[in-house]
Amino acid sequence: MRPYLGWCEGRVWWVEGGPYLWGMPTRPSKLPHVGTTIFTVMSKLAAEHGALNLGQGFPGFPMDQRLSDLVHAQMLAGRNQYAPMSGVPELRALLAKKMQVAYGFSYDPDAEITITAGGTQAIFTIITALVHAGDEVLSFAPAYDCYAPAVELQGATMKWVNLRYPDYRIDWHQVRAQITPRTRMIIINTPHNPTGMCMTAEDMSELQSIAEEHDLLVLSDEVYEHIVFDGGRHESAARYPELAKRSLVVYSFGKTFHNTGWKMGYVCAPAELTAEVCKVHQYNVFSVNTPAQYALAEYMGDASTYSGISEMYEAKRDVFNRALQGSRFRLKPAVGAYFQLLDYSGITDEGDVEFAKRLTREHKITGIPCSVFFPNLQDDKVLRFCFAKQDDELLRAAEILQSI
Ligand SMILES: Cc1ncc(COP(=O)(O)O)c(C=O)c1O
User: Fold this and answer.
1) 287 lines ligand 1 (CB under 6 A)
2) Is residue 41 within 8 Å of residue 7, measured between CB atoms?
């Protein structure tokens, strides 16, 4: 039998006579390239070494208790049975209004908005519903890790355009060069995980013309829509009416309200695309947590619950970055999302995975090596640190990093 090619922590490994699972021959995997993620590996290492973990991307401070109280009140009021498949009408109506106010696009709350179990389920459902075997899907590396497995499970092929350090801007000539008659969809992510890059109005205009020219769908992952810094504007696909007509725009309540564990999100898309998405959604999760939906509808009625998030995170970014001034790490301040990249090339030539592990073991501080977000493992010698943490934690982290 041919040796089996697999991945572990983003590194290639070979097994004779595979595929193998815990040493036992098994059926061929549908996702042979997927191994334990670096997040699991680094978090485990951080726990073993008692390291300060700024690796995994979730808020390290409490959500607003008023929102959890509202959920409790909905439970006590008996809202504990299945919600309608696409979401409770009150929440969909509110989101339609929010999209109109924020981005100027009118979505029909009944036919064009679907509440999902988080952004990841929305992305998986969209790809399953709209990407066919043999299609190609284009996206940008480094990338959030859930796009490629969803595409591959459809028998489709992922194609990548690499973003270039240090700005990680999109080279649209490269995008055009990668489009073929089989290209079906482009996946964008703005603000971007892991780089903090935000797409500009010019980017959106390029995207729109390419998508129109080649009749492509656009999956626009905008889960960090409310985290944009330095007075910048979030360039949603929904801002551009011609683009919005071919886009499925994905959001996450967890990123906005600091409750990633609730796994709540939504998709806005034209009716004919939403209809296809719902065909999968109804047999995938059917419907999403009822009391949380009613509570969110009530809570978000007050726009101040989400309007100050950029300022809050910008202050955290600045606390972290200021405390790093004079260190041997180099940085360009993130312009969106809640991740700061630190360039360590002035410290060592080590590969980023090795360096991240050594930082954890020897200095008790954990970040994520960025090469794992690239399918070709491009190593720019940068680590990603999540600054959605309490200020004292950020200061402690910076103090350790200053000592390296
Ligand atoms: C870019 C990006 N998209 C989607 C998600 C998933 O969001 P959710 O937690 O709502 O599934 C994440 C979470 O980290 C993310 O970083």
Assistant:
1) no
2) no
The pLDDT assigned to 230 comes to 97
Phi, psi (deg, nearest 5) at residue 135: -70, 160
Query: Which pLDDT value is given to residue 24?
Result: 57
The candidate with the shortest Cα–Cα distance to 210, out of 183, 249, 239, is 183
CA distances from 60 to 67, 145, 259, 298, 392 (A): 17, 22, 10, 25, 11
Strand residue runs (E) in 17-93: 20-21, 24-25, 52-53
Asked whether 321 lines ligand 1 (CB < 6 A), one says no
Q: What pLDDT sits at residue 15?
A: 38
Name, in order, each residue with C-beta under 8 angstroms of 328's C-beta and a sequence gap of 6 or more.
344, 346, 347, 404
Tell me if 278 sits within 8 A of 85, measured CB to CB: yes
Report how far residue 359's alpha carbon sits from residue 404's, in angstroms, rounded to the nearest whole number.
9
pLDDT digits (tens, 9 = 90+) for 217-257: 999 999 999 999 999 999 999 999 999 999 999 999 999 99
Is the CB of residue 43 below 6 angstroms from any atom belonging to ligand 1? no
Which pLDDT does position 27 carry in this prediction? 84
DSSP 8-state symbol, 347: T
Distance CA 233, CA 239 (A): 11
User: What's residue 37's pLDDT?
Assistant: 85
With a 6 Å cutoff on the Cβ, whether 252 touches ligand 1 is yes
Q: Which of 347, 363, 359, 348 is nearest to 384 (CA)?
A: 359
Parallel, antiparallel or unpaired: strands 265-268 and 247-252? antiparallel
